[in-house]
Amino acid sequence: MPSTAAIRSGLPAGPSSAGGRWSPLAGLTRLLGRYRESRCERAQQAQLAERAQEAAAVRAYAQRFASHDPRFVADLLAVAERHERSR
Asked: Which of 17, 29, 63, 68 is exposed most, by the fewest CB atoms within 10 A?
């Protein structure tokens, strides 16, 4: 029966079929791969959130000019939309 630590870490519970021995290096490699993937996902989410904040700031700035120059406002809103959608 696998130990609780093995289950939580995602490492294999017992010997592998290759030579009948469990490879700690293979388990560590998988664990580090999962960590790297989750770190990249968090960085992408943070970047998307930052872009949304920046676009909202441009939209708020554009609204200050709504009564003075509607074409300028339309341009700023288009810029904010493109900025939010681009990667």
From this structure: 17
